[in-house]
Amino acid sequence: MAYHHDGTTTCGGYSDIMVASERFVVRIPDNLPLDGAAPLLCAGITVYSPLKYFGFTNPGMHLGIVGLGGLGHVAVKFAKSFGLQVTLISTSPSKKKEAIEILGADSFLLSPDPEQMQIEMAYIMGVWAARGTLDGIIDTVSVIHPIPPVLDLLKPNGKLILLGSPNEPHQLPAPPLIMGRKTVAGSVIGGMKETQEMLDFAAKHNVTADIEVVPMDYVNTAMERLAKGDVRYRFVIDVGNSLSPTKP
Predict the structure, then answer these.
(1) CB neighbour list of residue 233: distance below 8 Å, 6 or more residues apart
(2) Confidence of residue 21 (pLDDT cuts 50, 70, 90)
(3) Using CB atoms within 10 A of its CB, is residue 141 exposed (0-12), middle (13-18) or buried (19+)?
(4) Residues 190, 196, 202, 207: what is their CA dihedral angle, to the nearest 10 degrees?
(5) Contact 66, 134 (CB under 8 A)
(6) Rounded alpha-carbon distances, angstroms, from residue 99 to 80, 140, 162, 207
(7) Rounded Cα gap, residues 82 and 63, in angstroms
(8) How far apart, in whole angstroms, are the C-alpha atoms of residue 149 and residue 169?
(9) Is the pLDDT confidence value at 197 over 90?
(10) How far is CA 157 from CA 65, 129, 177, 246, in A?
(11) Which of 39, 65, 167, 187 can bridge 50 by disulfide, Cβ–Cβ 3.0-4.6 Å?
(12) How far, in whole angstroms, is CA 136 from its chain's centroid?
């Protein structure tokens, strides 16, 4: 709980109005819906920043994205907007249809399947998508999972960028890194200037998060569903229609 200098309770992001320094405010382009743009201020910049910083913006590059959730689905949208070929890597076969037919990924790899992960030059959904064929990989998964099979998908000099933060350390053997001169790095969020750049890019390419809008009194239920992974892919709280108007 936080309080103003006069003792009244602050509401933070749940306020109906607030005052902030212009240094910490971004402009939402007019053609971006506020509800679909809200998650871009977290998930959007989290995936946009490494795409730009690590050079995954050249049309025709082949990018792998591990995990189709709040981060992964936005990563697919941004990557396709940059003109990349995208392979979605997931442990859930049920996400293949959504990845390809709805989000626009070019191919899908089921990560527990050794034949899909290790076969050389497997032609899947119109693009080459298997061992040694990816220029880079954005890994959005926040639980422990095998890293060597993911590294095997990279070309020589490829880059694996970790965005998830598991409770336990990953096992990272040296040989796959040494033999292919591959890089493993991490990334988190971005600065104000880059966040504004991301929003402008999203507006230009019609990138928004897939959301479910809920009222304030649904928050506890939403948290329970979130823990079960029962959301596609972000909850957005309708603060404006949940609070009574501010008294003058």
Answers:
(1) 39, 69, 70, 73, 74, 209, 210, 211
(2) confident
(3) buried
(4) 60
(5) no
(6) 12, 15, 20, 15
(7) 11
(8) 16
(9) yes
(10) 17, 17, 9, 56
(11) 187
(12) 15
Burial of 2 (0-12, 13-18, 19+ CB in 10 A): exposed
Angle between helical axes of 43-53 and 192-205 (0-180°, round to 10): 100
Token duo for residue 103: 């989000």
What lies within 8 Å, CB to CB, of 173 at 6+ separation is 148
The residue behind tokens 């239920």 is 221
| Type of residue at 159 | K
Alpha helices in the chain (DSSP H): 34-37, 43-53, 70-81, 96-97, 114-118, 148-151, 175-180, 192-205, 219-227
Cβ atoms within 10 A of the Cβ of 84, count?
Answer: 23
